[in-house]
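To the structural biology subgroup,

Please find below the input and predicted structure for histidine kinase, which we are adding to the shared reference set this quarter. The sequence is reproduced verbatim from the submission form. If anyone notices a discrepancy with their own records, reply to this email rather than editing the shared folder directly, so we keep one authoritative version.
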Amino acid sequence: MIRLTYSIAKNIEWPEKSTPFKIHVITTDEALKSEFRKTSQSQKIDGRNVEVTFTSYVMVPQGADAIMVTNRYNSTIPSLLDRIGGTPTLLFTDRYDKQRDVMVNILDKSSEALTFEINRANVTNQGLIIKSEMRSLGGSEVDLAKIFKQVRDSVRAMELRAQELKVVFDSLNFATTVSRRLFREQDRIIQDRNDEIAFKQSQIDDQNSILDSLREEFAESEKKLIALTSQLDNREKQLAVLSEEISLQADKVEEGNKTLAEQQERIAAQNEEIAQREQRLDEMSTVVNSQQSALVFLILFLVVVVVFLFLIFTAYRARKRAAKKLAEQKEDLARLLDELQDTQSQLVQSEKMASLGVLTAGIAHEINNAINFVYSGIHVLSDKFSEIRPVISHVTELDEDDKNLKKSIKELVQEREDVSYDEAQGVIDQMITSIKVGAERTTEIVKGLRIFSRSETEKKTNIDIHNDLDVALLLLNSRHKDAVKINKHFADQIPEIQGFKGQLSQAFLNIISNSIDSVNQKGKGGEIDIFTSKNGASVEVKIKDNGVGMSEVDRQKIFDPFFTTKKVGAGTGLGLSITYGIIERHGGTIVVHSKLDEGAEFIIKLPLES
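Predicted structure (tokenized):
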């Protein structure tokens, strides 16, 4: 095709120019672009170097000598002809079926070589002259007689259409009275729609106010999170110090027990030695020695008893002090545990607000798109209603007793055709539907935000798992709608479960958000499959992606607090930890299966009654 294009261009007499010969190609075919660039370097037309430009939309560069339109863009040829009419610009088309509009039309005869047809009259109208050598390239000239016959047949068809329209015109005489009533009904419907639009606009303004307050709350929550993180670090240091002190106290108690045992052994040894000495004294002396021995034995026994009681009392006091300190440490630990639980609840809420803050831009974009539906629809409604307002006014002015009623009706029908009344009425119905779609979309987004941002302190209620999954997908819509395909495999008639509204939406949002990040890291063709099923007395939810997956080491730590595989600043490491806590709070279980480069699958089981 490219070589044939250059050959045809060389057989045209062009106006004298000193600038390069400019060829503009409208195509998206990268192979065709590459071949054009390569060939243009070795070609000259009329002694001028060749310069080729490309676009994928209709445009006419200044000073273009030739324009090539590939088959995909044939629908743009009429508007292109209007732009280049009367200028020395040659239009090459690719298998264009309207011969009367072509200049040079490249034809593909399947198994045969490429050929072309040329409309000499259209080329001449552009101020260009075809050289006689053009015949050597083959091709054919457009049959003007055939084109004339097509035009004549088209005129005859238009005459038949005019006769049909005359019959329709006669039927309009009868429909005028009915149309008058329909116009009045349309006025009433439009007024109702305007009232509804005003009401929806007020709702949108309210939601914008709520979004502003949510942004402020998010900023405040972020400050609290930083402060709580600092407090948590201090608490961990205090716990470490207390653990060391308890260990030291236990070591001291153990050393005291050892010392007491050694003292008892020494006393026993001394008693044995005293007995041996008494025995020797008994042999040396009778009465006096026995009395002295008895006295000495009594004194020694009292000394031993006093020493033993003193050691017991000392050990008792030391153990009592250790027990008291241990009790105080237990109280501190219990108080610290309560504070940690409160901190955990605040972290869950802060993570929820942080997730909502990250999604704010996408949610605002979704709401803005819905509002654009409403605004554009109102603008078009206003324009179209202004166009048909004169027709409606003339209909209301018709009088059945008027002698010139037929003439007035004819004028009315003519005026109706002039303003394209039927087309305008169709556009009005279409715009009303568009406004309704935009308003419903806004309502869905706001409803999802309300469910997601519910307080953690609410009581358990019945929860529709499918609804919570849809809320999570709705809030993440701006992140996955263009890059990731979501496949929902929801089972029929899944019963509701007992749980806390908003928490399961947060858990599903955290998992799906991580899956989207994983899929985006892998590149194009990302998919996420979501399955639901009833398994005995529980509901099972599976969320599976074909992303980058994770190693076995990362999989074992994936639910640990502050563990993340993302870059610094891209994640807090709390999302899946909080998700694990939410599932446990509902009496359920969550496991993950994953391998590197093979995606990941999260399996959640929730009891129907927790």
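Summary notes: The radius of gyration is 46 Å. The mean pLDDT is 78.

Regards,
Lab coordination
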